[in-house]
Amino acid sequence: MENNLYFLLNTAQQTLFRQVDQQALQLVGVSAAQITALHHLQSMNGCMQADLGDALGLGKAATSGMVSRLEKNGLVKRLPSPTDGRGYKLMLTEDGEKAIVRSRPLLNQLNVILEDGFKESELVVIRRFMHTVVDKLTAE
User: Fold this and answer.
1) Cα–Cα distances in angstroms (integers) from residue 47 to residues 40, 50, 51, 118, in the given order
2) Which domains does the chain have, with CATH numbers?
3) How far, in Å, CA of 43 to CA of 32, rounded?
4) DSSP string, 11-54
5) Which of 40, 50, 54, 70 is deepest in the core (most CB within 10 A)?
6) Segment 95-119, tens digit of pLDDT
7) How far apart are CA 112 and CA 79, in angstroms?
8) Do the beta carbons of residue 25 and residue 69 sit within 8 Å?
9) What confidence score (pLDDT) does residue 67 get?
10) Nearest CA-CA partner of 46 in 2, 15, 76
């Protein structure tokens, strides 16, 4: 199992998120998953809630729960969609933008740690591999 890609990726993801969660809660006041959602919203501000869920790989219930927590913490506003009576547009609040800014040093530090010991040519292959995993598993 030690060289099985599925188990290695799963263990790496769990380890990374556990580490980010601990630091993110202390430094930013939100979880790793919420930081990821906020960063997606920064590039998709005004998107539909369902689109955020798709970007995060979450179902409707999980997306709704995530957005509810972000809204409760004053990081996003959920606005009725002008085109879809059942959907919501999501807008970052000023506090949401501030949380993103506070998260950047943590994410930059983690990237330095993750990249340490690899040549740039190796990082190119790692990034290509990660993108390929996502592309292959979402191409259904």
Assistant:
1) 10, 8, 6, 36
2) 18-138 (1.10.10.10)
3) 17
4) HHHHHHHHHHHHHHHHHTSS-HHHHHHHHHHHHHTT-BHHHHHH
5) 70
6) 999 999 999 999 999 999 999 999 9
7) 37
8) no
9) 96
10) 76
18-22: list long-range contacts, CB under 8 Å, 24+ apart.
Answer: 19/110, 20/106, 20/110
**Summary mean pLDDT of the chain:** 92
Quote the DSSP letter at residue 117: T
Residue whose C-alpha is closest to residue 106's, from 50, 1, 16, 23: 23
Res 118: pLDDT: 98
Q: Are residues 31 and 21 in contact, defined by beta-carbon separation less than 8 angstroms?
A: yes
Q: What amino acid is encoded at 25 in this protein?
A: L
- Report how far residue 79's alpha carbon sits from residue 67's, in angstroms, rounded to the nearest whole number: 12
Burial 27-47 (b: 16+ CB within 10 A, else e): ebebbbbbbbbbebbeeeeeb
Q: How many Å apart are CA 72 and CA 12, to the nearest integer?
A: 30
Q: Which residues of the chain have pLDDT under 70?
A: 1, 139-140
Structure tokens at 9: 């990726």
Which residues lie closer than 8 Å to 93 by C-beta, 6 or more apart?
74, 75, 76, 77
